[in-house]
Amino acid sequence: MNEEFDAHEALVRELSDPHLREQYARPYNGRKIGLVPKILAAFLVGSGTLLYGRRPSYGKFKAIEVIARVPYQSWEVAAYTLVSAFHGNEKMAIELCKTSAFSRFAQDNETMHVVVISHLARRKKDHGLFRFTLIPLIFALIYFWAIYFLYMISHKAALELNYLFESHAYEQYQEFIDTNEEMLKQTPVMSDFLAFYGRNVKSEYEFFESVRNDELIHRNRSIRELEVRGTRIKPSFEETV
Ligand SMILES: [Fe+2]
Ligand SMILES: [Fe+2]
User: 219 CA to middle of ligand 2, Å?
Assistant: First the structure.
């Protein structure tokens, strides 16, 4: 495994300490977000509530995770398109390649979430072809292109929308852990994919804690990408040749 993976996993373990988690979350709590990402996030969260209920559940997490991994791939494809169009701009290419590296890593992490949670939802019989598979798949396809174009138009709006979506995921996992603590602590996790990914947990409690921590990292990284790389990628035509 590479250094980035090891550093991420070490941070995930640290964030299980409530004090360290609070310290890590604090600088990015309650960020001021633009109107467009706010409206889009309200639509996304509202659709999830309408289809799967307000309370978190295995089935709701499975559906949300199918959709939550999509932005990272959209960003990568959008960044790839921008590098193709403006390959003469070295500075911009470096920034876009950095965004791609983060989004590739997050894609693998979110893929682990969706595969393992689908496995757990099946065991709990909290699944179904139409509501939990087909609807999220169709939604994910539309969402992929919506985020692709949003990223091309406004890098900032795409990252802020992700911040809100990941905040919601973080809160839902926390609520799930708080509500089901005893049951989760008594349930072991047996998943070949989790072992393949390289994460070791003893129980579903530890697994859902680690996923919650992943979502907090994604939330903070979405804003940090903006702070480090600037709010807008501005190409010029002279730089395309
Ligand atoms: Fe996730
Ligand atoms: Fe996430």
Answer: 7
* Ligand number, closest to the Cα atom of 71: 2
Q: What is the dihedral of CA 80, 85, 87, 92, to 10 degrees?
A: -70
Is 19 within the bounds of a domain?
A: no
| Each residue's pLDDT expressed in tens, for the chain with a length of 241 residues | 588 999 999 999 999 999 999 999 999 999 999 999 999 999 999 999 999 999 999 999 999 999 999 999 999 999 999 999 988 889 888 888 888 888 999 999 999 999 999 999 999 887 888 888 999 999 999 999 999 999 999 999 999 999 999 999 999 999 999 999 999 999 999 999 999 999 999 999 999 999 999 999 999 999 998 888 665 455 443 433 3
Structural domain count of the chain: 1
Domain that holds residue 138: 34-233
What predicted TM-score, i.e. pTM, was given to this entire model? 0.92
Structure tokens at 148: 């692709």
d(CA 220, ligand 2 centre) in Å:
10
Cα 152 to Cα 139: distance, rounded to the nearest angstrom: 20
